Amino acid sequence: MGIVSVFETTASRALGGRAAGLADGATAVQVAQKVGQPTGSCIYFAVDFKATPEFTTGVYGSHAVVEAVRAAGACSRFWQTRAWSYGKHSAAAHIYQYDCGP
């Protein structure tokens, strides 16, 4: 038997947008550290309601993130940042962010 952690504030919190996600992510990390969760282990985030297929799912991240999520079949849209991609460009990327700031 294994133990996993799942973070949830309210059932429909996933509808709260970016600000809610950032706040929950920060809180989840603080709680995980407080209870001694091993570094590198997974924190699951609950979407605890009947989500509808009205929207597609996408991920933003490096080449490695895009490729891993694509291989897992977890998303249908991909936005790749140049940062941390080490010159690699995923053929799956729908958006490629060339500039990462000033």
TrEMBL record:
<feature type="domain" description="Rv2525c-like glycoside hydrolase-like">
    <location>
        <begin position="3"/>
        <end position="53"/>
    </location>
</feature>
<dbReference type="InterPro" id="IPR017853">
    <property type="entry name" value="GH"/>
</dbReference>
<dbReference type="Pfam" id="PF08924">
    <property type="entry name" value="Rv2525c_GlyHyd-like"/>
</dbReference>
<protein>
    <submittedName>
        <fullName>DUF1906 domain-containing protein</fullName>
    </submittedName>
</protein>
<dbReference type="InterPro" id="IPR015020">
    <property type="entry name" value="Rv2525c-like_Glyco_Hydro-like"/>
</dbReference>
